[in-house]
Design brief:
It contains 15 helices and 16 strands. By secondary structure, it is of the alpha+beta class. It has three domains: 100 residues; 230 residues, no CATH class; 116 residues, no CATH class. The strands form two sheets. Strands 1, 2, 3, 4, 5, 6, 7, 8, 9, 11, 12, 13, 15 and 16 form a 14-stranded mixed beta sheet that branches. It has a two-stranded antiparallel sheet with strand order 10-14. α10 runs parallel beside α13 and α10 packs across α14. It is elongated.
């Protein structure tokens, strides 16, 4: 009987509960050249295709940018037409881009663009001479059109840019042509089918999140080819700039949870794409490709910040193969007016929003606290109901689980088995909540009494198994009364009056 009561207590307590990934790989490889690989360490494989998920939080200008990128140096992964491939070996071409980004053309902000960037070196001394030579080179690249579009010359601009490996800067001239603007959904649907290999499209991973993001009315599409000395970098990015504070930009989320989290000093990257977890491409399954999937978070502020805590492993530096054997965050800038962190998957194939979450605040010079626990899975049902892993209600439930339930041996033992049971059905319920607002609201209302009753545990001193059982029995009896006895009495009373 006692085992049954303990089981019921814990059931009640837990049921509610683009561009720089290549640079990172280069950095790691440079360090790796100086290191003797230790016996037993997995050696990173070689796979050209990479996927990136980037979040930029601009606290200075009160806006955020979401970007999902698919990149490869293999012409069989992202396949350009022959007339574009032909000039990819031309050292004068810096990049070739097709985009529907807003105002990509300074003269025709309502149009999409084809932008041919040409290395300025050796093309003349006067501005007029440079423009003539640059235009001649660029015109040859669009002589056969631009993947179904007919470009029209718009303007030429000069600027400095870095190569995709990040080790060289060049002054380049961008020749901008305009084309008819199409929605990102149409562009991604049409061009991804034509340009991206079927292996990548059917392997899921970040591709499916890019596809979902492309459906947003204000999402932007960018297709780029960047020639290199020995190979060309090909990429497709879907991005969205949003804000809950600027009326001229689309809102990041209707409930405003993202804005509240950022103001309170916490961030869950998956909230930006409304997902409970993110999975890598199936192409990487059973392979050790720690840098081929990267979640990248950049935070810009006008104050001195620092990363306070993470909910997963912390990779302090990239010096040995051992450093990327496990998943975790690596911060190239963990303090200052810019926070720069990348999450590396290691040998894992997916990660939850809870594991990706981290907190930041005023710089006090303290070390980063690791909040990782053995049973750190998120509560999918409650998260979907309240809109975020970092919603106050979900954080409260997590604290009850981690600081109360898991502090007893029976609680820890229960969580190991319960997680297998809970996660067998909770993803389906969570998905239905997101698809059905009425059901989501019903779940939220249903969870409210339970949240109230669990709040009593905050005022209890539980230092032993017997105390956990005693308070647990009290909580479960209270919930039985609220969820079953009270409704039954109400129904019987109504029947008698009818």
């Amino acid at each position: 009987m006692l085992k049954l009561l303990i089981f019921l207590v814990f059931v009640i307590g837990c049921s509610v509960f683009l561009t720089q990934a290549f640079s990172l790989e280069v950095e790691l490889q440079k360090e790796e050249d100086r290191i003797n690989e230790a016996l037993g360490f997995l050696k990173p494989g070689d796979y050209d295709f990479q996927e990136q998920f980037q979040i930029i939080v601009d606290k200075v200008n009160h806006k955020n940018r979401i970007s999902i990128g698919l990149l490869s140096t293999n012409s069989n992964d992202i396949i350009f037409p022959d007339y574009i491939e032909d000039f990819s070996s031309d050292p004068r071409i810096f990049s070739y881009t097709i985009t529907n980004q807003f105002a990509c053309s300074p003269n025709s902000i309502g149009e999409a663009c084809v932008i041919v960037a040409v290395n300025r070196e050796g093309l003349g001394t006067s501005l007029e001479e440079i423009k003539i030579n640059v235009l001649e080179i660029a015109d040859k690249t669009i002589a056969h059109g631009a993947i179904g579009f007919i470009p029209e010359f718009d303007s030429i601009t000069l600027q400095s840019k870095s190569s995709y490996s990040g080790d060289e800067k060049k002054v380049i001239a961008s020749v901008i042509y305009t084309i008819n603007k199409q929605s990102t959904k149409k562009l991604f649907s049409a061009l991804s089918t034509t340009l991206i290999s079927s292996d990548i499209r059917t392997a899921g991973g970040f591709y499916q999140y890019a596809e979902k993001l492309s459906e947003h009315h204000f999402a932007e599409f960018t297709l780029t080819l960047v020639p290199g000395e020995t190979e060309a970098l090909r990429s497709i990015h879907i991005s969205l700039t949003c804000s809950n504070d600027l009326p001229e930009l689309p809102v990041c989320d209707p409930d405003g949870n993202i804005s509240k989290q950022i103001k309170s000093g916490s961030i869950n990257p998956l909230d930006f794409i409304q997902s409970e977890n993110i999975k890598r491409s199936g192409l990487f399954t059973d392979k050790f490709l720690p840098l081929n999937s990267v979640v990248h978070v950049l935070i810009f502020a006008d104050e001195d910040l620092q990363v306070k805590s993470v909910n997963s492993n912390l990779i302090k530096k990239l010096e040995q193969i051992a450093d990327v054997q496990e998943n975790g965050w690596v911060f190239t800038s963990k303090s200052g007016k810019k926070i720069d962190g990348r999450y590396i998957f290691g040998t894992t194939n997916s990660v939850s929003g809870n594991e990706l979450s981290f907190s930041f605040g005023p710089n006090s010079g303290e070390d980063i606290v690791i909040n990782k626990t053995e049973n750190s899975g998120g509560c999918l049902i409650a998260t979907a109901a309240f809109g975020s892993e970092l919603a106050p209600q979900v954080q409260f439930l997590r604290e009850i689980r981690d600081n109360t339930v898991l502090q007893t041996e029976s609680g820890s033992a229960f969580m190991t088995g319960f997680n297998q049971f809970y996660y067998s059905f909770s993803p389906v319920i969570a998905d239905y909540e997101r698809e059905n607002p009425a059901f989501k609201e019903a779940v939220r209302v249903t969870l409210t009494p339970l949240l109230t009753s669990l709040a009593l545990l905050q005022y209890a001193d539980i230092d032993s198994e017997s105390e956990m059982l005693g308070y647990g029995v009290g909580i479960i009896l209270l919930n039985i009364g609220m969820y079953f006895v009270a409704p039954a009495v109400l129904i019987m009373t109504i029947k008698k009056r009818i």
